[in-house]
Specification:
Elements: H1 5-20, E1 26-29, H2 46-108, H3 110-164, H4 169-240, E2 244-255, H5 269-274, H6 296-300, H7 354-378, H8 380-386, H9 404-419, H10 440-458, E3 464-475, H11 482-497, E4 501-503, E5 506-507, H12 509-515, E6 521-528, H13 531-534, E7 549-560, H14 564-571, H15 582-592, E8 593-604, H16 608-614, H17 616-680, H18 686-736, H19 741-794, E9 798-801, E10 804-807, H20 831-836, E11 839-843, E12 862-866, H21 886-891, H22 904-913, H23 944-955
Antiparallel strand pairs: 1-10, 2-8, 3-7, 4-5, 6-7, 9-10, 11-12
Length: 972
């Protein structure tokens, strides 16, 4: 850490030079700065701190105001949406009501509308007939005119002929013959035309008579149909208004009879005296009843004995009468068998059928689950003792399942026991006299080897324990029924499980096996005992007339590393097969509890809506009948008009043919006459004849054009008749059923007005919020600008030159300080930043004493960047202001001596030097220039032009040059 000696002497030279210049420049020397222990002499003014505080307050309050404005606008927008939705729903409801009323009125006025339609059709028909008659009359007039013209032409031609051959008898004779021919042709035409007219009139009269007959018949049919439809509607309406009965069903719960095991069995005196011989760990002798933690468990041990005589209390509620009355839970206590009230199915001498075995499996499975759950819920201490090392203390067990998987295990175990003659007192183990591969563990391991392999692979790093065990009991029956076997098995299991719960330190092996929470399935096998087995001493079979069974319970499961959660997750997987006892259990459950549908009725009084719905079809039928009636009348009228048009066409064709015949006859007579005249040598009258014919053809052509116009006029007239009549009909219908379109349009316009009003309210709110925001921002900007002007004024006469502070004399008075650009000064987010950040400021030029002949010079302001960082973490970047020549200074001074801003040159250069570090700053804030972390070696060198300026300032005692200097300090 060292200082530059060159900088030190430069600072001294600058100070000396400044003192020599009229003594108006004051210098303050500062000590050298070291990176490890220096303090920054630069201070932040109170105005600067106030500016930062106001700036922060400004941002906070403007943000809060903006947030509040946004919330109000959002609330208004939501209110608009809700209001628009509500008004839309109301508008649509009103429109639907208008449409419904309109439809109802249409239905009500259907008869009047149909009558108006019929009247309109009749009026159109009458006016159309009149128009056609008028047209026909005009055509007849044309034809009459043409006939008259032809007669005149003929007469003129005859006169010409007579004149040409007045004295020639031959001509007279020829003309006489010609006239006779014309007369004959005219008579023929008249006769044929009359016949055609007669035929036409006769056909029209006949058609009219036919139409009237059909019309009368149809009208009568229509009236009858409408009458019937109206009567049907009236009947349907009356029926629809009548109260009626409807069928209902009520759910009635039916609870079947379920036997309740009894626990108040009297203990015989010899048992009390000598105790009970139980298979309980830790006891080799008899266990007295007094040793039982729960005395009711002692009574259940009697279930081990086939002789039900030990049950002295013959309670009816403990006596099931059928399999459906067997309890599915497994509470402590015994059941009583009553052969006289046994309604169950028989068991043959050959033993249990496959279906009967499944029923017993279903019951035994339910009882084992009942025992596990009852002990866990009510005798938890026994359950926890059994599972204290398995991770299942106070963790409920998962129910056991009996599936096709376990049935196969049970059936294989029974087959092996039968093969190796294992009796009911021996388990399926090697010590019972069977090979290892035939034992129950071998059968289970073989069946579960793939599952265990998969689990071992899945839970690599954890221990997968296999939980397998076997319980064995004997089942027999004095009466060969399924119920007797079931009760015997139930009581046997009571002794095997509850009978072995002495106290938590002495629990029998059967109970321990079943309470093991790691097991998930049980294969229940029924091995039929041979006579040899039952005859053995200690077999426990008292009645050998009926088949007896050794019942095996082979339990299987896996415990995953004694982790209850992992174990239960595996237990709940679909890997244990499909249940084979659900149907049997559901049958028993349904018998014990189900819901019956009991039929009933209730009286219903129809509402107006019900009546409307009930009669809708009849109302539609009536409307259809009326519409069909009108359609039938319209069809008759249309067919009648078509017939009349056809007759008219036929009549016109007949008249045309009559005229054609007449024309042929006339042409032939003229030809004969002309030939005769030519033969007599009379002058050829062909030219004259052609002239007359041409005139006649012109008339015919004109008549044809006129006829087309007449036809068009007629058609237009008929179309107008239909239009006018239909307008009248529409007006009549509208009078009967006024349109609701204007009302609908008004409702829609009102809804649009509601939307527009909401939009206007929201727009007005946004405008008010924006105005309030702008007003507050402007207030803060004014306050910030005032603080900034105070800061600028305070620093106007103070400049840092290297390690020295120079207080300059006041600058030339400015006429209006509002014309001087405001110089931004940096903000600091905290005091440390204010102390360690470089400051950019514009320094007012000093006033220098000049000779009387010299022009005052306004020196360019100096832009100085000073950094007094304490820890050498940031170095400032500065730009040397240019030396202002006299020419430039003069140009910047007005004639009256008032100083103007001449910082443009220096500012422009400073700006160019900082282009890489520009940032956009909000209006009203103080710009802060960030200092770069490193500087190039060239920037650390003293500018040679600055050195020249210092030397010149030191020697020019009366010099008139402005002083510009920037000193640097380097920290290592």
């Amino acid at each position: 850490m060292r200082n530059s000696n060159t900088n030190n002497w430069r600072s001294t030279a600058l100070v000396a030079g400044a003192i020599l210049t009229a003594g108006v420049v004051t210098t303050t020397s500062t000590t050298d700065v070291h990176a490890d222990n220096s303090q920054n002499n630069a201070q932040v003014s109170n105005d600067q701190v106030t500016y930062d505080q106001v700036r922060a307050t400004t941002d906070q309050q403007l943000a809060q105001l903006q947030s509040a404005n946004d919330s109000k606008e959002a609330q208004q927008a939501t209110a608009n949406e809700q209001s628009n939705a509500a008004d839309l729903a109301q508008t649509n409801a009103q429109i639907d009501q208008l449409k419904a009323s309109h439809a109802a009125l249409e239905q009500e006025q259907a008869g009047a509308i149909a009558q108006a339609q019929a009247s309109t059709a009749a009026s159109i028909e009458a006016q159309t007939s009149a128009a056609n008659a008028e047209y026909q009359q005009q055509i007849n007039t044309q034809q009459q005119n043409e006939a008259t013209q032809r007669a005149a032409n003929d007469q003129q031609y005859a006169q010409a002929v007579n004149q040409a051959a007045e004295n020639q008898q031959a001509v007279a004779d020829i003309n006489a013959q010609y006239q006779k021919a014309l007369s004959d042709a005219a008579n023929t035409q008249t006769s044929q035309a009359q016949a055609a007219a007669n035929n036409y009139n006769s056909a029209v009269a006949k058609e009219n008579d036919t139409y009237q007959g059909k019309l009368s018949a149809q009208q009568a049919t229509n009236a009858e149909n409408i009458k019937n439809a109206e009567a049907s509607l009236a009947s349907a309406t009356a029926n629809a208004n009548k109260p009626y009965e409807v069928a209902t069903t009520n759910d009635v719960a039916v609870t079947g009879r379920v036997a309740k095991p009894q626990t108040d069995v009297k203990v015989p005196a010899y048992v009390t005296k000598y105790g009970i011989h139980l298979e309980v760990r830790g006891y080799n002798g008899a266990i007295p009843v007094s040793d039982y933690t729960y005395p009711e468990f002692a009574n259940t041990y009697y279930g081990e004995y086939p002789d039900s005589a030990v049950i002295t209390n013959k309670a009816a509620e403990s006596t099931p009468h059928d399999i459906s009355e067997m309890p599915l839970d497994f509470q402590p206590g015994l059941l009583i068998y009553d052969a006289k009230n046994d309604h169950s199915e028989k068991v043959s001498a050959d033993g249990l059928t496959a279906d009967q075995v499944q029923v017993l499996r279903a019951l035994a499975l339910s009882w084992e689950n009942g025992f596990r759950n009852n002990v866990f819920q009510n005798y938890r201490e026994f359950y926890n003792v059994v599972n204290k090392n398995d991770g299942f203390v106070n963790v409920a067990p998962v129910d056991l399942v009996s599936t096709d998987f376990t049935d196969n295990i049970a059936n294989q175990v029974v087959a092996n026991r039968t093969k190796y003659n294992i009796d009911n007192n021996s388990h399926t183990v090697i010590s019972s006299g069977m090979p290892a591969e035939a034992t129950y563990t071998s059968v289970i391991n073989d069946a579960t080897k793939n599952l265990k392999k998969n689990l071992t692979s899945e839970f690599n790093g954890k221990t997968v324990y296999t939980d397998v065990n076997e319980n064995l009991t004997t089942m027999q029956a004095g009466t060969p029924t399924l119920l007797n076997y079931a009760i015997n098995l139930y009581n046997s299991m009571q002794g095997m499980y509850y009978g072995e719960l002495v106290n938590p330190t002495h629990i029998g092996g059967h109970a321990v096996n079943l309470l093991c929470a790691g097991v998930r399935t049980v294969g229940i096998g029924f091995q039929k005992l041979t006579d040899e087995m039952t005859a053995k001493n200690g077999s426990g079979v008292s009645d050998r007339k009926n088949p007896s069974y050794a019942v095996t319970f082979d339990h299987v499961g896996f415990n995953i590393d004694y982790d209850a959660n992992l174990t239960k997750e595996v237990q709940n997987r679909n890997v244990w097969g499909t249940s084979t006892v659900d149907a049997q259990l559901n049958t028993i459950k349904t018998a014990q509890y189900h819901v019956n549908k009991v039929p009933g009725t209730k009286t219903v009084t129809p509402t107006a809506t019900d009546v409307q719905k009930a009669t809708a079809s009849e109302q539609q039928k009536l409307a259809d009948v009326k519409a069909q009636a009108q359609q039938s009348l319209d069809a008759l009228a249309s067919a009648h008009q078509a017939s009349l048009n056809k007759l008219a066409q036929q009549y016109n064709d007949a008249k045309a043919q009559v005229k054609a015949n007449y024309d042929v006859a006339v042409t032939k007579a003229a030809s004969v006459r002309d030939a005769a005249l030519k033969a007599t040598g009379v002058v050829n009258l062909q030219a004259y004849k052609a002239q007359l014919d041409s005139a006649y053809q012109n008339l015919v052509k004109a008549d044809q054009v006129a006829a087309q116009k007449l036809a068009a006029d007629r058609d237009a007239k008929i179309a107008n008749i239909k239009k006018v009549e239909n307008v009248k009909l529409d007006a009549k219908i509208n009078e009967l059923v006024p349109s609701v379109d204007p009302q609908i349009k008004q409702l829609q316009d009102q809804h649009q007005a509601v939307i527009a009003h909401g939009d206007a309210v929201l727009a007005e709110l946004k405008a008010e919020n924006k105005a309030a925001y702008n007003k507050l921002a402007e207030q803060f900007n004014v306050q910030l600008a005032a603080i900034q002007r105070r800061e600028n004024a305070k620093r106007a006469n103070e400049v840092r030159l290297a390690n020295n502070t120079v207080v300059l004399p006041s600058a030339v008075k400015v006429a209006n300080d509002g014309n001087i650009d405001t110089v931004a000064f940096p903000t600091a987010s905290n005091p440390l930043q204010a102390e360690t950040t470089g400051r950019v400021q514009t320094v007012s030029a000093p006033s220098i004493v000049k000779t009387a002949t010299q022009t005052p010079i306004a020196v360019a302001p100096v832009v100085t960047t000073v950094n007094h960082a304490a820890e050498n973490t940031v170095k400032s970047n500065e730009s040397s202001a240019p030396v202002v020549t006299q020419t430039t200074a003069v140009a910047a001074t007005t004639n009256n001596g008032t100083q103007t801003s001449v910082a443009s040159t220096a500012d422009n250069k400073a700006t160019k030097a900082d282009n890489s570090e520009k940032s956009v700053v909000k209006a009203g804030t103080v710009a802060k220039k960030q200092t770069p972390a490193k500087k190039s070696e060239s920037s650390q060198k003293v500018d040679q032009s600055s050195m020249s300026i210092v030397a010149l300032a030191a020697t020019a005692l009366l010099g008139t040059l402005g002083i510009t200097y920037s000193s640097k300090k380097r920290h290592n």
